[in-house]
Batch of 3 targets.
Target 1
Amino acid sequence: MISTLKIKEALYKQCVDFVENRFNTIQNTITEIQESLTSETKSSAGDKHETGRAMLQLEREKAGNQLAEIQKIKENLSKINSSNTSEFIGLGSVVYTNKSNYFIAISAGELKVENELFFAISPNTPIGQLLMGKTVSEEVVFREQSFKIETIL
């Protein structure tokens, strides 16, 4: 069996990888848009050209916003100390309940460690807000389902 510290470290590493992949994808998109903008030459159909450039500008702006969002997520992730434990649920907590397991960090979906399934969630999500500050044996009701907190790492 993997140690509790190793579980937290493995979940943290998966979240870092998730953010890095998203970051690289957005960077590549921005690079492709830049290349499209610079390679687009003025054609005889001027209006069509201008529309194409405007669409690319919008795409670049959208990608820039996504990049800013990823930077914020990276910042939040950097605040997590995987060696810290607490009896109260907070940023970086691994939470076992009688229904599901959670890693309070960023919204990264399902993560697996040693065949155990965890949901990486942000403390700002509805379920994250319900869990924050709770302790072992407290019950939480989410979407008409009740579950009990069994362990906090």
Target 2
Amino acid sequence: MPFEIQILLIDDDEDDRDFFQFALEDISTNIGYAGVESGVDAFLYLENNPLPDCIFLDLNMPGMSGRECLAKLKSRTEYHQIPVIIFSTSSDPHDKKETMEMGAVDFITKPSKPSDLVKELTNFISHHFAQKI
């Protein structure tokens, strides 16, 4: 059975990718998840898989930064319509303002507790995808 929602996480930290996946599994079995560790890997994923319903994107990554990845996503016609949510350790209002101006639809500061991440993701998913879950 296909997933109702497909989410892509771009984050260089393997622990954060695992943490995110476990939180999604707590929320619903109708959510598909893929995690990649870089912007370069993200574009390879996007070229070879069905497009996700949304992308969660870390800002601080080696190689292609989150800002560079966001700019590239928003500049490509085949990807610009995919909602991008910044998922970062940053809580800097400047980072939020800048990335929202670049086209991100939301900005979530990574919580330290699993229960807080489940709560953040539940709020986001219920707000944006209530009809699908």
Target 3
Amino acid sequence: MRSPGRRPLAVAALLAALLGGCTPVAGPGQNAADSASASIWRARNTMQVAPDPQRPNTAAVISRAQAGPSDFWCAAGDYAIRRLGASPTDRVYILRGQGPSPVSFGRSAVTFTTEPPPELADGPRPGPETGYGLSLDTPGFNLRAAQARGYCPDSLRKFGFGLRL
């Protein structure tokens, strides 16, 4: 038989579990970094993407241990298509190369956009003249959103689940 003193603790634990997944909303007096950290989104490869509240269609992909260029581009393409509603043929550009994260102290990030300033719109693309590597440092470097998202792992499909993420 349960003791009456445990019931409030069980209710509190249940509420904490339910509210733990809620995303806080920035309120008055919070700065842009607080607002951006409150709206962090996870790409299908679990990389964190922080939208830039000052610039539409722009977000920083935050580094994680052992992440390589394909992980950053996967997250950028996934964010562009699933969150921004970009067409698979729209281009995703590096706005700012890898540097300090705007929202996660001690981590780095690459800032991507689907609306580059005019000076970056004709930036380099992978190809015979520039090489086929993926840049994380060159502002203006760009890929089609579907090509960037193509770097996402398809581990669920490999095991026959047939899920479309």
